[in-house]
Design goal:
- The protein is mostly helical.
- The chain is built from seven helices and no strands.
- α3 packs across α5 and α4 packs across α5.
- The protein starts with a helix and ends with a helix.
Length: about 140
């Protein structure tokens, strides 16, 4: 299994939690049921979803910081959850290169985004967040 598929499954679960107000465990179970994943891959999906959900308030504050004249609740659910997933990886998963997290979010935005502008918007927010994260490390 590729990590791209794991991220897609994690995104689907986060979307269910956000839009459907589904419990995290139920969303994970539902998102994983169509896939016959080995335990390490299932663990990765769980880590992504639980990490993004457990840190949602921090991630949302970061997203809000980069929104210009816009509110997080007005973002499409797709954009909001792709940003949460990618920012979780960027901030809390140093084992994953920032460029990989951004690229994977952009690929998912191309697949699930509701507008042609979603990819550019997500890229802009993530680029600014990474730039600030790197500045804070120095």
């Amino acid at each position: 299994m590729s990590r791209r598929l794991a991220r897609e499954i994690a995104f689907r679960a986060l979307f269910q939690v956000d839009v459907g107000k589904c419990r995290t465990e139920l969303a994970l179970r539902h998102s994983l049921e169509d896939f016959n994943l080995e335990q390490p891959e299932q663990n990765f999906v769980h880590q992504l979803v639980e990490g993004a959900e457990n840190n949602r308030s921090v991630l949302d504050e970061i997203i809000k910081k980069y929104l210009v004249k816009w509110e997080i609740d007005r973002l499409s659910a797709v954009d909001r959850n792709l940003l949460r997933l990618a920012l979780y990886e960027i901030i809390y998963r140093p084992d994953i290169p920032h460029a990989v997290s951004i690229n994977e979010a952009l690929e998912l935005a191309k697949k699930y985004g509701s507008s042609g502008e979603a990819v550019g918007f997500i890229n802009g927010v993530l680029d600014r967040a990474v730039g600030e994260a790197l500045e804070n490390k120095t």
